[in-house]
Amino acid sequence: MSKTTVLTAPQGLLRFGLRLPIWLYRLRLGWLFGNRFLLLTHIGRKSGLARQTVIEVVKYDEESDRYFVVSGWGIQSDWYQNIHKNPDVVINVGARKLQVRAEDIPLSEAVDILEEYTRRYPMAFKELTRLFLKEELQPGREASQRLAEMMPMVAFRPRK
Known about the structure:
By secondary structure, this protein is of the alpha+beta class. The protein has one domain (10-158): Electron Transport, Fmn-binding Protein, Chain A (Pnp Oxidase, Chain A, Roll). Helix content is 37%, strand content 27%. The chain has 5 helices and 7 strands; from the N terminus they run αββββαββαααβ. The chain has helices at 12-26, 78-85, 107-120, 122-133, 141-150; strands at residues 37-43, 50-56, 59-61, 66-70, 88-93, 96-104, 153-158. The protein has a 7-stranded antiparallel beta sheet. The longest helix has 15 residues, at 12-26. The protein is globular.
């Protein structure tokens, strides 16, 4: 599998479906998602305008209050590039609104987190790999490694 597999941005109905949760957050219905999804508000690296996207939370670490996500379309994803230009962003998770700082997660830690995700959500993992990689991977360490190499992981940590 080549790294170009995740380079195609969503279009048409897929794009509409992926953006629909933004409206639920705007209608103050984000609590419906619990801790499973978050609304990221970031600043466009070229425009300087506020942008929003909804991302699945791969892991929430209650002790450190960090939310871990992956960039489904790899490093070329707009939100991913934007947070590298300005890592101080805002997230809404459930009913919470947090001022956070984005930080990249090392590959080895990302693999461990993704492997844990595959155990908790095996069907979701299969569907996500089919959607993003055009290949249904079986949950496990090897699949987590392949995914982590293609989809960088980011954590959002509350700013003090």
